[in-house]
Amino acid sequence: MTPDEVRPVRVGRRTVPTHRPDKVLFPGDGGGDGAAKEYTKADLVDYYKSVAPYLLPHLRARPLMLERYPDGLDGPRFMQKNTPDHYPDWIGRAEVAKEDGTVTHVVCGDTATLVYLADQACLTLHRWLSRTTAPDRPDRLVLDLDPPGDDFAAVREAAGWAGELLDRLGLPAAPMTTGSRGLHLVVPLNGRHDFDEVRGFARDLTDLLAAEHPDRLTTAVRKADRGDRLFLDMGRNAYAQTAVAPYTVRARPGAPVAVPITWDQLADPALDARRWTIAEAVDQARTRPWAGIPARGRALGSARRRLDALRDASGRPHRVNGRL
To answer: pLDDT tens-digit profile of 218-269?
Structure first.
């Protein structure tokens, strides 16, 4: 490797070498207005370095799963859970239990780690919904609104219904475009409930939403059973499951980004899931769209009682610890 294929990036007290910075990770399509632009590894590194002040609070103390494309979008993809031995000692790690042993995940707490991961062609950061200090106690509940095709109007409609129901339950929700097709609604929790409780609550919540709008929404896991209805996916609310982190890049042409938004922005008919790319996402981050979301997460006790009352009124059966 020649010296010009390594670009040192100074990050605080560290200098992180980036290799082959001119390597194209996101090929452009060569079109005109509205076409997907070409982005290199250097562009990815620069983006993650710039967005770090807004991204890191969503990553700290959380195990990560890394989505890597060493040869760019046109090459193979692999999902990395375990931290390779050759990663530097200063990269954060967390050993957590799995069914047949343990796995040591990367934990990202600083900008230097973000730059290092970008150099590894890690495009997307998938985070746990719990922290390393209490891996079985999530402090986030995530609903994924997954439309049929690219129908973002259906996403906006479903998000409005879900937001209204969560408001009735006393739970603030933060919307985020996924950079792919849909939208995540993120509900901050206080971290005192285990995954069974949170998953049971999320299941009952989505069941009720689908029952209230049966022609538009579904909780059917099999695509063949959904028809043209939007899928309310609550499956990420389980131990060792992950969700796309806010401000992370998605592996799609043009390098779109998963971006937190306000409810007012969600009301814009021109909005779609890939509205922001690495060229514009930092500007959106600077507006701090989630500033109105309470810093302290909520307990589910009163929300569960209100949800059960609504289910009583609708004739829906109750669950105890996630079971009927």
So the answer is: 999 999 999 999 999 999 999 999 999 999 999 999 999 999 999 999 999 9
Name the amino acid, one letter, at 277.
Answer: T
Q: Are 250 and 244 in contact (CB under 8 A)?
A: yes
Q: In the prediction, which pLDDT does 8 show? A: 96
C-alpha dihedral (223, 322, 290, 11), degrees to nearest 10: -90
Residue with tokens 């919904």: 129
Task: Report the C-alpha gap between 223 and 298 in whole angstroms.
Answer: 33
In terms of Cα–Cα distance, which of 186, 82, 62 is closest to 134?
Answer: 62
- Distance between CA atoms of residues 244 and 181, nearest Å: 13
| Alpha carbon distance 13, 23 (integer Å) | 26
Question: First and final CA of the chain: distance in angstroms?
Answer: 61
> What 8-state DSSP symbol labels residue 255?
-
pLDDT digits (tens, 9 = 90+) for 128-184: 999 999 999 999 999 999 999 899 999 999 999 999 999 999 999 999 999 999 999
Q: Rounded to the nearest 5 degrees, what angle is found at the Cα of 55, between the Cα atoms of 53 and 60?
A: 100
CB 245 within 8 A of CB 126: yes
Q: Under a CB-based contact definition with an 8 Å cutoff, are residues 36 and 26 in contact?
A: yes
pTM of the model: 0.93
For the beta carbon of residue 53, count every other beta carbon within 10 angstroms: 11
Q: 294: which 2 tokens?
A: 């309470």
Signed CA dihedral, 97, 100, 104, 108: sign only: negative
* CB half-sphere exposure, 281, CA atoms < 13 A: 34
Stated as kind and residue range, the H or E segment containing 24 is strand 24-26
Element (H, E) at 14: strand 14-19
Residue 27 neighbours by CB distance under 10 Å: 15
Q: How many CA atoms lie within 13 A of 103 on its CB side?
A: 15
Distance (Å, rounded) from C-alpha 98 to C-alpha 100? 6
Among 176, 177, 78, smallest CA distance to 122 is for 78
